[in-house]
Every structure is written in C-alpha cells, then in structure tokens.
From TrEMBL:
<dbReference type="Pfam" id="PF01902">
    <property type="entry name" value="Diphthami_syn_2"/>
</dbReference>
<dbReference type="GO" id="GO:0017178">
    <property type="term" value="F:diphthine-ammonia ligase activity"/>
</dbReference>
<feature type="domain" description="Diphthamide synthase">
    <location>
        <begin position="5"/>
        <end position="210"/>
    </location>
</feature>
<protein>
    <submittedName>
        <fullName>Diphthine--ammonia ligase</fullName>
        <ecNumber>6.3.1.14</ecNumber>
    </submittedName>
</protein>
<dbReference type="GO" id="GO:0017183">
    <property type="term" value="P:protein histidyl modification to diphthamide"/>
</dbReference>
<dbReference type="InterPro" id="IPR014729">
    <property type="entry name" value="Rossmann-like_a/b/a_fold"/>
</dbReference>
<dbReference type="InterPro" id="IPR030662">
    <property type="entry name" value="DPH6/MJ0570"/>
</dbReference>
<dbReference type="InterPro" id="IPR002761">
    <property type="entry name" value="Diphthami_syn_dom"/>
</dbReference>
<keyword id="KW-0436">Ligase</keyword>
Length: 216
C-alpha cells in the first residue's frame, strides 16, 4: 500500500510515518501546506529549505503547497486527488494523537480523494508515546511554544526528562494541544542528521518562535 505523509517536519508526523513503514506500507511523497508565498510552513513555521533538507535525507519528494487559511481544505483535497494519481497512492498518514476534530477532518478530506486515512498514533498515552518516540531515535528540537512555557524552551532537544518536566508543569508532553511544536533533526528514516541555519528567538502574540537566519 503506497502512502502520502502529511508532513509537518515535527515528531508526530515523523513517528507516524515510521510506524506506517514498520507495518510494510510504502512512503511515496511528503505533503506540507505552506503560507501564501510558499516559503514557510503553516503548521510549524518551518522554512521550505529545512523541509526540503528533511525530504532529501529520506530520498522522497516534498510537495509544499501555498495556501491561505480560507482555501486550506479545498487545496488539501485537490492536492490529495492529484497526488493519488501522480504517486499511485492508496492512503494518507497523519500524526494526530487524540483530537477528534482533527481525525474527523482527515477522514473527510481522504474520503473526498478516495484515500484511506491512517493515524498510527491515535489514542496512545501521551507520556508513553513521547518516550517511545525518543527511544526509537527520533531527535527533535522545540521550535515554538506558548508563553506559559516561555522562550527558554526554544532550541531544547526533547528528552524523556524534559517531557516529564513538562507533564509535571501541566503541559501536554506531546504538545498535542498546540503548547509547543518540534523539528525533527534525525530519525531512522534519514540517511544522516540535517544541518540547521543559525536562529534567533522572538515572541509574537503570546507565542514564542525560533526565527531562522536564512529566512529573515
């Protein structure tokens, strides 16, 4: 079964893809919805250059689709339909854990494109899952977070100790509710670790972000 990965560049989409590969499914393409100019991702605020580097380490094509929030769903469905034919796809893999509204949306857009929606991480225990992700060699860095966490967490590598610290502070250790987002630096799917540009840290509207030097 050939699949497309809804690729955010972060830990959950990465580990969902690893799980799908481990069950014998075949990855064909990565899909990321970008901002209007097609240079930075809508989900994690990652520059196209970093997403392309991740894709190259997996020897997979990356389809970065420029979109507004208003036409996001229509663009997503049309892209799934086009890629179903282009890459001979049977399914799309997503990294959601337990937000029902997200699963409902993914089922809806996949049904519209005659694809099967696969969610390998669905309803797994958060702390157990993040520990499993780390144990399986997925190295990730926190690249954005809310001001409850604060700027001091940006640039930190997600470890079991850090996940436990977040949980003890009442923060979802997977960041499933948007508390933080991560960037995959290395994993079993990569031929080697990616190289990051220099970055600075900024806070806008109660959210803290890594600002990549090559995108300033």
């Amino acid at each position: 079964m050939n699949f497309l990965t809804s690729w955010s560049g972060g830990k959950d989409s990465c580990y969902a893809m690893i799980q799908a590969v481990n069950t014998g499914l075949v990855p064909k393409v990565l899909l990321n919805m970008m901002n209007e100019n097609g240079q930075i991702s809508r989900s994690h605020g990652l520059p196209l250059s970093i997403l392309n580097q991740q894709a190259q380490k997996m020897q997979l094509p990356l389809e970065g689709i420029p979109t507004t929030w208003g036409d996001y769903e229509a663009k997503f469905i049309s892209t799934l339909k086009t890629h179903k034919i282009k890459y001979d796809l049977d399914a799309a893999v997503f990294g959601d854990i337990d937000l029902q509204a997200h699963k409902d949306w993914e089922d809806k857009v996949c049904q519209a494109a005659s694809l099967k929606a696969i969610l390998p991480l669905w309803q797994q225990d958060r702390i157990k899952l993040v520990n499993e992700i780390i144990e399986n060699g997925v190295e990730t860095m926190i690249v954005s977070c809310n001001t409850i966490m604060g700027e001091s967490y940006l640039g930190k590598i997600l470890t079991k100790e850090l996940a436990l610290e977040l949980k003890e502070k009442g923060i979802d250790p997977c960041g499933e509710n948007g508390e933080f987002h991560t960037l995959v630096l290395n994993c079993s799917l990569f031929s080697e670790r990616i190289t990051l540009p220099k970055f600075s840290i900024k806070t806008y509207n109660d959210y803290c972000f890594v600002v990549w030097e090559d995108f300033v």
